């Protein structure tokens, strides 16, 4: 019979391969769209990319609210009870909001530095560079139409084509508008170049935040496997983790495709995400052989996962949903996009429900102040 250590190593290698394959699968899907000769077929295929992006948003939102946040709540509550710090303050929700603000502040600082570095180059760029992130997503269609028009005319080199490869393929309605004879005029080449550069940087930064959040979450998932001492538990966690990781990897790949990331960047990011769970498993295997302070472990894991929750919310509500629902060219099929958003949310919800079926939920005693209020109401 296979040993526990050998089984963990098999799980480690399997997760590494499957996660990487699913993270780069959107590249293959988008490449097939690029080689479609028929305009209508290309447009339909690219609409599917937009719908899958909405599906990914549902996956990320469900992962945050239904998977990560309950774990954060349990770990922080356990740590605070062990440290004799009882409180009714919503610590887990507070840590989530801190994570959201950290990501938002970091991005705004990066954008501020970018704006100051480009103010002296183009006088037109100054006022527009101070738009909010939501406003930048509304300019997405105009930028891509102009860039795609330049690509068709052969004025761009191979280096520019590689840099915007994934994004040009994922801009479904932008190409359609260009093919119908629409053009974005009145913009200088330098102005459009710097607007494209800023938009590329914004999307790239957000993709890195998403990769960081998912990687952090994956390390803790790997720890759950590495810390197990029973073969049946390892197999059960591995089955659920494989499905969950494959969906997350594909969703992450779709987010990379929708950004301005290069093919090399997508492959590198996919590999980085693929190795996070094996890293967690390896750490768990090492920790399994030693005694670890459970209080400090719960506290650190809870804080880090709470910050990851805030990153999930940032990516969903500041990146994916505004891009899909606020851009004029992407307004058609609004309800279909909403359906895919719900399907993504429901998929993770169903997986989590099935994986936790039969497990008793935490029983929380009624607070003393609530009991006193009920008694006063009875007296009155």
UniProtKB/TrEMBL annotation:
Q: Name one GO cellular component term.
A: plasma membrane
**Residue ranges of region Disordered?**
120-193
- Mind telling me which residue stretches traverse the membrane in this protein? 6-27, 48-68, 88-106, 208-228, 234-254, 266-290, 296-318, 339-358
Under Gene Ontology molecular function, one entry of this record is: zinc ion transmembrane transporter activity
Compositionally biased region (Basic and acidic residues)? 127-151
The compartments listed are: Membrane
Do the record's keywords include Magnesium? no
Record keywords: Transmembrane helix included?
A: yes
How does the entry describe its membrane topology?
A: Multi-pass membrane protein
Pfam families reported for this sequence: Zip
What keywords sit in the KW lines?
Answer: Membrane, Transmembrane, Transmembrane helix
Task: Write down the PANTHER family for this protein, in alphabetical order.
Answer: ZINC/IRON TRANSPORTER (PTHR11040), ZRT (ZRT), IRT- (IRT-) LIKE PROTEIN TRANSPORTER (PTHR11040:SF140)
Q: Please state what the protein is called.
A: Zinc transporter ZIP1
The organism's taxonomy opens as: Eukaryota, Metazoa, Spiralia, Lophotrochozoa, Annelida
């Amino acid at each position: 019979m296979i040993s526990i250590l050998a089984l963990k190593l098999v799980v480690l290698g399997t997760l590494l391969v499957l996660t990487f394959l699913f993270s780069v699968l959107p590249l293959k899907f988008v490449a097939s769209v690029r080689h479609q000769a028929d305009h209508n077929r290309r447009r339909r295929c690219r609409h599917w990319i937009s719908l899958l992006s909405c599906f990914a948003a549902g996956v990320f939102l469900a992962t945050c609210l239904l998977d990560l946040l309950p774990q954060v709540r349990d770990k922080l509550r356990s740590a605070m009870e062990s440290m004799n710090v009882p409180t009714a303050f919503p610590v887990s929700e507070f840590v989530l909001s801190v994570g959201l603000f950290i990501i938002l502040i970091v991005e705004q600082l990066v954008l501020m530095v970018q704006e100051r570095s480009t103010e002296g180059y183009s006088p037109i760029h100054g006022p527009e560079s101070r738009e909010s992130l939501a406003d930048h997503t509304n300019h997405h269609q105009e930028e891509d139409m102009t860039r795609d028009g330049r690509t068709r005319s052969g004025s761009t080199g191979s280096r520019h084509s590689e840099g915007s490869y994934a994004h040009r393929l994922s801009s479904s309605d932008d190409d359609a508008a260009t093919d119908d004879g629409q053009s974005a005029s009145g913009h200088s080449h330098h102005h459009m170049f710097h607007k494209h550069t800023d938009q590329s940087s914004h999307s790239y930064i957000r993709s890195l935040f998403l990769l960081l959040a998912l990687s952090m979450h994956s390390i803790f998932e790997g720890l759950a496997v590495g810390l197990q001492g029973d073969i049946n538990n390892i197999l059960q966690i591995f089955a659920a983790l494989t499905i969950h990781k494959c969906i997350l990897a594909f969703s992450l790949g779709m987010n990379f495709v929708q950004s301005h990331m290069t093919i090399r960047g997508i492959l590198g990011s996919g590999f980085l995400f693929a190795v996070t769970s094996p890293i967690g498993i390896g750490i768990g295997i090492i920790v399994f052989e030693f005694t670890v302070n459970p209080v400090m472990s719960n506290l650190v894991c809870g804080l880090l996962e709470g910050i990851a929750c805030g990153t999930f919310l940032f990516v969903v509500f500041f990146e994916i949903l505004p891009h899909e629902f606020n851009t004029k060219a992407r307004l058609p099929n609004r309800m279909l996009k909403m359906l895919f958003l719900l399907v993504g949310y429901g998929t993770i919800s169903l997986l989590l429900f099935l994986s936790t079926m039969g497990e008793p939920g935490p029983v929380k005693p009624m607070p003393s102040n609530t009991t006193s209020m009920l008694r006063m109401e009875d007296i009155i």
